[in-house]
Amino acid sequence: MLLYRLATDGGYAVVSDDQPARRLQSNPWATSLDRWSLGEPVEIDHLLPPVEPSKIVGIGRNYVAHAEELGNEMPKEPLIFLKAPSSLLAPGAPILLPPESHRVELEGEIALVIGARLHRAGRDECRAAILGVTAANDVTARDLQRSDKTFARGKSFDTFCPVGPALRLGSDLDDLSVETRLDGQVVQRGQVREMAWKPLDLVEYVCRHMTLEPGDLLLTGTPAGVTPLRPGQTVSVEIAGVGTLTNPIAAWEDPT
């Protein structure tokens, strides 16, 4: 089952079992899946990110090869950072390269969407609280990330967190893969089995340090192959069963 958020009014649509998309009349963050009510058919065209998170939690260096390509040691436990919710970007919207950075890189990732409040929860509770999976691009100003003591600035420019196109419910969390393409050329491939900490491990770990709320987004880390972005390019992040998140790249322009 796929959940899309429509740009027309911010509502949701559901696609299930190859049936036409239908409007979701229930609140997916306050109503259990078995009680969802569907309405009239709708068109899936212009989309918003499928979530409105109170926070975006990232995990650094969760793939050994990615840590190695940046010359970093693997952490002894998951490395948590935060991206500003204002960095969220819809499918198809342009990623804007800020003038403050001279090296902005793509980072295709498997993202988990939390469906229930979690605070120091056990493994079974964490599993039940994961609503679904979506694709994300943890766009990073690499030069600023390296110069700062924290990741916040380099990770949080506006447009630096494209997400979508859909939220897939019922995915096997141990059998997920991600592929990132730049102008159609594959630059990243990663699978859950290559992660140092698997998705459920990350949810259980993160909720011990901060409360996770319905709609929160957890980025599980990027595989090797991070690549600089230039205006005029197009980057796509694909997760099987979720769809392809595609965004063009443009230079930031001063509106004044």
Task: Summarize it.
By secondary structure, the chain is mainly beta.
Care to describe what's here?
There is one protein chain. By secondary structure, this protein is mainly beta. The protein has two domains: 48 residues; 202 residues, Alpha-Beta Complex (Fumarylacetoacetate hydrolase, domain 2). 13% of the residues lie in helices and 36% in strands. It is built from five helices and 19 strands. A hairpin with a 3-residue loop joins strand 18 and strand 19. The radius of gyration is 17 Å and the shape is globular. The termini are far apart.
CATH topology of the largest domain: Fumarylacetoacetate hydrolase, domain 2
Q: Can you give the helix content as a percent range? A: 10-25%
Q: Which regions contain 5 or more consecutive residues with pLDDT less than 50?
A: none
Beta-strand level of the residues, as a percent range?
35-45%
The main sheet comes to:
12 strands, mixed
Can you tell me the CATH class of the largest domain?
Alpha Beta
Shape estimate: globular
Number of strands: 19
Structural features:
twelve-stranded mixed sheet, 19 strands, five-stranded mixed sheet, 13% helix, single chain, mainly beta, 2 domains, 256 residues
Task: Explain the layout of strands and helices.
Elements: E1 2-6, E2 12-15, E3 22-24, E4 38-41, E5 47-48, E6 56-60, H1 64-69, E7 79-83, E8 88-89, E9 95-97, E10 104-105, E11 108-114, H2 123-129, E12 130-137, E13 140-141, H3 142-147, H4 152-155, E14 161-168, E15 177-182, E16 185-191, H5 199-209, E17 217-219, E18 234-239, E19 243-251
